[in-house]
Design brief:
Number of strands of chain B: 7
Shape of chain A: globular
Structural class of chain A: alpha+beta
Pfam families (chain B): CcmE
Organism (chain B): gamma proteobacterium HTCC2207
Family (chain B): Belongs to the CcmE/CycJ family.
Largest sheet of chain A: 6 strands, antiparallel
Largest sheet of chain B: 5 strands, mixed, barrel
Helix content of chain A: 55-70%
InterPro entries (chain B): CcmE (IPR004329), CcmE-like_sf (IPR036127), NA-bd_OB-fold (IPR012340)
Order of helices and strands of chain B: HEHEEEEEEH
CATH architecture of the largest domain in chain B: Beta Barrel
Distance between the termini of chain A: 50 Å
Number of domains of chain B: 2
Radius of gyration of chain A: 28 Å
Keywords (chain B): Cell membrane, Cytochrome c-type biogenesis, Heme, Iron, Membrane, Metal-binding, Signal-anchor, Transmembrane, Transmembrane helix
Number of strands of chain A: 11
Oligomer: heterodimer
């Protein structure tokens, strides 16, 4: 019965979203305030019903209701409880329901926190979000209903969740990623509302900015978690595969990053207006494209599910409708928004200014996105044109993405230092000299040192360290140090701002005091920028160094064997059999020694999940900031022998540490007091206007 | 020419040149790094090029997997229902690699028409068959049917 309640709740939510799409929009044109206000209550109502529906599906999983097709396919009585809950979004139907739920959460958040916005704008934003909900509601109910029953002969036992998904990663990665994807729908709704109203200025940018930043934070963390999950769960030590679905999440992130920067120009300087709108439309369109690629099964991918083509066609049609209509609107109304710019002062800036630097940032990010888009869609296009079945390999993506990232990092160092309108080139040269020399030194010297510590005996070069000198490592180190040192230099200058004017006569203590004072005065968005930029440097360092110094060996071992990898001695101690809740596993014990000292004992497993009869590698790793030891059991060979993969991965943690720092940076800038203060004063203002309205009535 | 216009013209020329360069690079890189998919029948018949990087997929033939005793070398056959292709690989096979299941191998075809694979992909979900393999199997099945009905005439 519970499933039917869930189904009905979903249908009611769809009806509410239809009303949410139409009523406030109509009201905004006709000028009926009650109609416009209705959008807010409808959004909250929709959240309630989608949440009920989601709760019903979760209950069906917890009760092992295998009469539901979806539960029967993705759960099992032996599945641990936390995985029964995460299994709700473990496959197609449920993950769409999660998407709908998150969309409802964002809409409700907009309804609750938009008190300071003009009613016309907030009602239109909610109406557009409603229209998107209609699309997804229809998609779920028509093509992928999670509440479909298998009657009258329902199975007594479920098929179990895909073992790869029985992991903590599945609990956190999809919800985070979806919060990001769907969050861009708010940016999209703001952009479309601005185009409809023909009004788009700094105030608009200030309202939309926290929403855009928070969506971007979720997406950043979602991608980072996904990469980390792939690293330890897929069992082979890779953290990014240029898989179509990974690309599908990276593309909105790149455009989102461009948007986060471009909207700051719109807010502060009133420039880049139509470009910002276009980016907002693009970011959400790419999120939808990602959904299409994942859900339609048109591409061979780690994330693809077995699917019927009907779903692909539905999403493609929806994608076409959203992209087509929003771009048409942009083409028609974009000039109006642009013309409005003429009213204000003409925004001018010189060749060496912060505006120019941010433009460079946007050009590089959008070009990187375009390269990935071409590489991802090329196999599809080639297939349609019957040019053969092609897959585009990682070398293509690396060839374009790596230089562009390096270019971005070089520009980033300058950009932190640049000023609005015009930057003093002399000052830039002066202040940039020390960071430049430090980075150059790091690039030249550190690779020698790294090559020494990370032993290369295993590479059969007889300890000739200059041969092990890696140019890639040098470039990575140089670029990362450049970003970090320039950031620190800028921070230092900001702290010294007050004290240098007063002169040095006052002594060191007062200088320190004024520096401290300046330190607390710096706004959250400044800290956000600094943390995120240093995060990029840390992430790049991890990517570069781990790919250069990574050492991997596939070996055949019997218990008692000893193998040396990059200065670590691995011994295969023993092999046991262990029984898990819904699997049995062969578990190896492997000890790692460095200089005859025990560093770690690792227990990699080869699991066999009973319900699906599926084998899965559970890697074991010893994590550290400077290196990961990563061991996985391959397959049993003759006798006691096993194929074993041994990895030493220097600095691989930095990749995700950097990712989290980027996310944290975004979070700091969302929490900037500036937005909260405006919000409060905005709320006061709207309260006042409401009061004055009441008086006039 | 008006200096402003001249400046604009220079900018436009620069942009066009940059765009042309980028498009050229993209096309070149796609060609260099696009790996074509071939069916075992296409490779055995010699339709597929030798010693270029390519992918082949099909069902792993029952009982065809041969392992070495003292290394990670493995040999197996895949089929699209028409022809069988021998594949050799040194390394660890993916978890869901099994006889009678779909697999995709990427590598180069050598002189003896053996695919020396650098990477073996198996499906990641027991219900999932890579679309290329499914297509190839369907195509081969259709051809067989057509050949059968042809022989009746």
């Amino acid at each position: 019965m519970i499933a039917e309640y869930g189904h009905v709740a979903l249908i009611i939510a769809l009806c509410l979203s239809v009303a949410q799409a139409i009523v406030p929009m109509a009201g905004s044109f006709a000028g009926y305030r009650t109609w416009m206000r209705l959008g807010h209550s409808l959004a909250l109502g929709q959240l309630v019903f989608v949440a009920i529906s989601f709760a019903c599906l979760t209950a069906a999983f917890l009760q092992d209701d295998f009469s539901l097709q979806y539960v029967a396919n993705n759960s099992n009585t032996l599945l641990p409880t936390q995985f029964k809950i995460s299994a709700v979004w473990g496959a197609h139907e449920g993950s769409l329901l999660l998407w709908a739920l998150i969309l409802a959460v964002w809409s409700a958040a907009v309804a609750l926190f938009s008190g300071h916005l003009p009613l016309v704008l907030s009602s239109r934003v909610l109406s557009i979000l409603g229209a998107i909900s209609v699309g997804f509601g229809l998609f779920i109910l028509l093509t992928s209903n999670p509440f479909a029953r298998i009657l009258p002969f329902s199975p007594t036992e479920g098929g179990d969740l895909n073992p790869l998904l029985q992991d903590f990663g599945l609990i956190v990665h999809p919800p985070m990623l979806y919060m990001g994807y769907v969050g861009f729908s708010v940016a999209f709704a703001f952009a479309v509302a601005a185009l409809i109203g023909g009004q788009f200025d700094s105030a608009w940018a200030r309202w939309a900015r926290p929403w855009i930043n928070s969506a971007w934070v979720f997406l950043t963390i979602g991608i980072t978690l996904g990469s980390w999950w792939a690293y330890y769960e897929l069992g082979w030590g890779g953290w990014w595969f240029w898989d179509p679905v990974e690309n599908a999440s990276l593309m909105p992130w790149l455009v989102g990053t461009a948007l986060v920067h471009s909207i700051s120009v719109t807010e502060k300087r009133g420039a880049f207006r139509s470009w910002t709108l276009l980016l907002a439309i693009l970011a959400f369109s790419l999120s939808l494209l990602g959904t299409f690629l994942v859900r339609s099964g048109v591409l061979t991918s780690v994330h693809a599910f077995a699917n019927d083509p009907e779903r692909g066609i539905f999403i493609l049609a929806f994608l076409g409708l959203v992209v087509g209509s929003s771009l048409l609107l942009f083409a028609l109304r974009g000039p109006v928004v642009q013309r409005q710019q003429g009213d204000a002062e003409v925004v001018s800036y010189s060749g060496l200014s912060r505006e120019m630097m941010l433009m460079l940032n946007n050009v590089l990010l959008v070009s990187a996105m375009a390269m990935i888009l071409i590489g991802t869609l090329y196999p599809l296009i080639a297939d349609v044109l019957e040019l053969g079945k092609i897959s585009v390999g990682p070398p293509y993506f690396n060839f374009f993405f790596v230089p562009m990232t390096l270019g971005l990092m070089v520009a980033m160092g300058f950009a932190v230092f640049s000023r609005w309108k015009k930057t003093d080139a002399q000052m830039l040269r002066q202040k940039g000299m020390v960071p430049f020399l430090i980075s150059l030194g790091a690039a030249l010297i550190l690779p020698l040192f790294l090559a020494e510590t990370i032993s290369w005996e295993s590479m059969s070069w007889e300890g000739v360290s200059w041969k092990a000198y890696s140019i890639t490592a040098a470039i990575t180190l140089g670029a990362s140090f450049w970003v970090v040192t320039m950031s620190i230099e800028d921070l230092w200058q900001k702290l010294d701002r007050g004290s240098s004017k007063r002169g040095s006569s006052k002594g060191d203590s007062s200088k320190r005091e004024s520096r401290l004072k300046n330190l607390t005065k710096l706004p959250g968005s400044y800290w956000g920028m600094q943390v995120a930029h240093i995060g990029i440097a840390v992430c790049a360092l991890g990517v570069g160094l781990s790919s250069v110094y990574d050492v991997q060996k596939d070996v055949r071992m019997v218990p008692g064997d000893r193998v040396e990898v990059a200065g670590y001695e691995f011994t295969f101690d023993s092999l046991d059999f262990v029984q898990g809740p819904n699997f049995g596993a062969s578990r190896g014990q492997i000890s790692a020694y460095k200089n005859d000292r025990l560093v770690a004992v690792l227990y990699p497993e080869k699991r066999k999940y009973e319900a699906r009869n599926q084998v899965m590698t559970e890697a074991a790793l010893d994590a550290g900031l400077t290196r990961d030891l990563y061991v996985s059991l391959g397959e049993p060979l003759k006798g006691d022998a096993w194929a074993i993969r041994l990895h030493v991965k220097p600095f691989v943690r930095c990749i995700w540490l950097g990712g989290l720092m980027i996310g944290l940076g975004g979070l700091l800038s969302v929490m900037d007091k500036r937005y909260r203060r405006r919000r409060q004063s905005g709320a006061k203002l709207s309260a006042q206007s409401a009061a004055s309205e009441a008086v006039t009535q | 020419m008006h200096p402003l216009r001249k400046q604009r013209l220079q900018l436009v020329i620069l942009l066009v040149a940059a765009a042309a360069l980028v498009v050229g690079l993209v096309v070149y890189m796609l060609r260099e790094n696009g790996n074509f998919f071939y069916t075992p029948a296409q490779i055995v018949s010699g339709e597929a090029p030798k010693s270029t990087f390519l992918r082949a997929g099909g069902m792993v033939v029952d009982g065809s997997v041969v392992r070495s005793d003292d290394s990670l070398w493995v040999q197996f056959k895949i089929t699209d229902g028409v022809e069988m292709l021998t594949i050799e690989h040194t390394g660890i096979l993916p978890d869901l690699f099994a006889e009678g299941e779909a697999a995709i191998a990427s590598g180069k075809v050598d002189e003896n028409v053996v695919l020396q694979a650098t990477q073996i992909l198996a499906k990641h979900d027991e219900k999932y068959t890579p679309p290329e393999v499914a297509d190839a199997m369907n195509e081969a099945y259709k051809q067989k049917e057509a050949a059968k009905s042809g022989s009746y005439k």
